[in-house]
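Q: I'm building a small set of examples for a reading group on sequence design. Run inverse folding on the following structure and report the sequence directly after it, with nothing in between.
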């Protein structure tokens, strides 16, 4: 990354190659929503493990090597819970990050697992010392305290190609974004306090992997585990895979 307080925080958004990693993942949302509009989901188009579009795999595609490496990592390991840490605000955002109406800058765009995502975001926000204190000041002009310091990402500002949306649509992983400090560049002397603000919330968040249903899908006759079995839950239009 480039950038510092001296050059302005925006410089730090882009890599040396000029790519904003926060918008660099494949847009799988549009493909899903187009398929939904045409009644193709889930029989002709999947509602999970959506394949990466061919254009994204071309050698000349504007995809950072860091992004490609993270995608390879996600495909090799079956992560189920993740969070990425940002600075500049005090709020926890959850998918979808991209608005369904493409021309809108803000629009409530929940996933099929909205209740789970709201719970995950709330776990972090309510245990984060900086967010939970009633004496805290606003970072900028948004008063996230009124909504429990959580917000649907697209309802704040649209982010096409976010890692959160990609994780949800291409893997089994549920991912949120934690904006954990008003200050993008805290001084070294402030880091112990920043750690204390986030230590308990990080631990509580990780503990959420123990929620929900766990088990092994087995062949009834051989008792062998079945890889890539698709599990559907009534009323939730988003399957997961063993």
């Amino acid at each position: 990354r480039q950038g510092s307080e001296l050059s302005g925080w925006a410089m730090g958004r882009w890599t040396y190659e000029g790519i904003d990693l926060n918008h660099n993942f494949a847009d799988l949302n549009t493909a899903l929503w187009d398929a939904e509009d045409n009644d193709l989901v889930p029989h002709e188009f999947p509602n999970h493990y959506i394949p990466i579009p061919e254009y994204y795999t071309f050698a000349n595609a504007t995809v950072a090597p860091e992004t490609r490496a993270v995608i390879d990592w996600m495909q090799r390991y079956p992560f189920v819970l993740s969070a990425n840490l940002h600075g500049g605000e005090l709020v926890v955002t959850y998918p979808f990050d991209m608005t369904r109406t493409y021309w809108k800058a803000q629009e409530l765009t929940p996933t099929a697992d909205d209740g789970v995502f709201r719970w995950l975001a709330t776990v972090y926000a309510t245990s984060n010392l900086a967010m939970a204190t009633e004496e805290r000041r606003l970072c900028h002009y948004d008063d996230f305290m009124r909504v429990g310091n959580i917000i649907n990402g697209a309802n704040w500002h649209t982010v096409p190609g976010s890692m959160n949306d990609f994780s949800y649509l291409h893997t089994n992983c549920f991912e949120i974004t934690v904006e954990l400090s008003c200050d993008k560049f805290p001084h070294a002397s402030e880091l112990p306090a920043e750690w204390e603000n986030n230590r308990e919330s990080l631990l509580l968040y990780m503990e959420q992997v123990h929620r929900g249903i766990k088990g092994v899908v087995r062949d009834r006759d051989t008792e062998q585990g079945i890889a890539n079995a698709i599990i559907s839950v009534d009323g939730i239009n988003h399957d997961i895979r063993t």
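The chain has one domain: 21-214.
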